[in-house]
Specification:
The protein is mainly α and about 50 residues long. The chain has two helices and no strands.
C-alpha cells in the first residue's frame, strides 16, 4: 500500500500545480486583453489574436 499512497500523494500535488499554472495563464491572458483595450498596440494585438 505504500506505493499506492505515494502515487495518490503525488497525483494530488501535480493536480494542485496544474491548477495553479492554469490560473496563472488565465491571469496573463486577462492582463493582455486589458492592455489591448486600454491602448492599441500592434504587438499586443498580434499576441492576443494568436
Amino acid at each position: 500500500m505504500a506505493r499506492k499512497d505515494a502515487l495518490s500523494s503525488l497525483r494530488t500535488i501535480l493536480v494542485r500545480r496544474r491548477d495553479a499554472l492554469r490560473n496563472a495563464l488565465n491571469g496573463d491572458l486577462t492582463l493582455l486583453k486589458e492592455l489591448r483595450s486600454e491602448s492599441p498596440g500592434d504587438v499586443i494585438d498580434a499576441a492576443v489574436d494568436t
